[in-house]
Amino acid sequence: MGTRTMRFALLGAMSAGVVFTQQACADGTAVEPVAAPAASETTAATAASPSETESTSPDEGAVPVCKTADLEANITLQPDSTGDTRKGLVTLTNKSDIECGVHGRAAIALKNPADEVVDVPTENVEEPGESIRTALKSGSSVYQGIKWTICDKGDSTCGAGNTLVFSLDGSTDAKPAKLSNFPAPEKNEITMKSLQIGTIQPSRQGVVAW
């Protein structure tokens, strides 16, 4: 094959998406062309699977919504509480046998020894940010923070009680939460002048840092 003819053949092969590994062997025999991989094949190999995020951030309706009865709450008084401010880490654990979805926040309320809800001014806050919709597998947990101002039980505007209860948004079936590092229930010394409730998050990182 002449030099000019061979050059045109090479250009034609390259325009068709064919790449030569080298021009020719030492004995002058032409090397078989190797086709370049299709762009769609490369994309398919490197694309992330959508299922990698569905287990922690499912679409609404992908799993049934958790009910208050499905969960257990443990509220731990934080050691870095200072002055009149107290913080609590709320851990919500799925105690049912099925996966269910949580989003928003769990309502928290103070109760007195007569099992009555104590009237405490309460504010829902977007802390540490917007709630992340989470599919909660059986035995796994999500977290939210609460912050309140303590007060003197002798003050008529001060709410006092001995336990905290929780329920999911729209629920009326509140359940007692397990309390850690709080005063003994018989002392009735949980006081609240006001309460703020943060949002449910899949990780405890930063949940009470506000």
TrEMBL record:
InterPro entries: DUF4232 (IPR025326). Residues 41-58 have a biased composition (Low complexity). Pfam families: DUF4232. The keyword Phosphoprotein does not apply. Residues 66-196 form the DUF4232 domain. Residues 41-63 are annotated as: Disordered. This is DUF4232 domain-containing protein.
